[in-house]
Amino acid sequence: MTPLLPEETRHERAIRASISIHCPGLSAFQMACRADIAAMRDQAAVAMFRAAAPAAALLGVVARLASTVVYAPAADGELLNIRVALRMTIDAAGALDRASGDGSWHGPL
């Protein structure tokens, strides 16, 4: 039987293990949101070194906010709203990078 979800990478397992240690007893939804926010944090931190200066500043904000939110107490709705806001900020950084033409990142993560 084929699994419905793809297997987790070592990085994803490490993120989930870290979250479960620091925030025990999370629901599956909260764990998924927090893991996605942590993945966005890591991707934004890497992309900020390839992006133009204005986009890099936005990506730095995403990385810092995501670092704080991953382990902070938050309700389901708050986590979902934060996740969407971070994704929209990453998309805005990609548009800013494309518009400036200085960076080599050029897009959403």
Summarize the structure.
This protein is mainly alpha-helical and 109 residues long. It has a domain at 26-100. The protein has helices at residues 10-22, 28-47, 53-71, 76-100.
Largest sheet: none
Identify the overall geometry. Answer: elongated
Total strand segments = 0
Mean pLDDT: 86
Q: DSSP helix count?
A: 4
Q: Fraction of residues in helices?
A: over 70%
**N- to C-terminal distance:** 32 Å
Note poorly predicted spans. none
Name the structural class. mainly alpha
Strand content: under 5%
Written as H for each helix and E for each strand, in order along the chain, the element string is: HHHH
- Specify Rg, calculated over alpha carbons: 15 Å
Task: Characterise the protein shown here.
By secondary structure, the chain is mainly alpha-helical. It has a domain at 26-100. The chain has 4 helices and no strands. It has helices at 10-22, 28-47, 53-71, 76-100. Helix 3 packs antiparallel against helix 4 (76-100). The longest helix has 25 residues, at 76-100. The chain is elongated. It starts with 9 loop residues before the first helix and ends in a 9-residue tail after the last helix. The mean pLDDT is 86.
Chain-wise SSE layout:
Blueprint: H1 10-22, H2 28-47, H3 53-71, H4 76-100
Annotation keywords:
single chain, 109 residues, mainly alpha, elongated
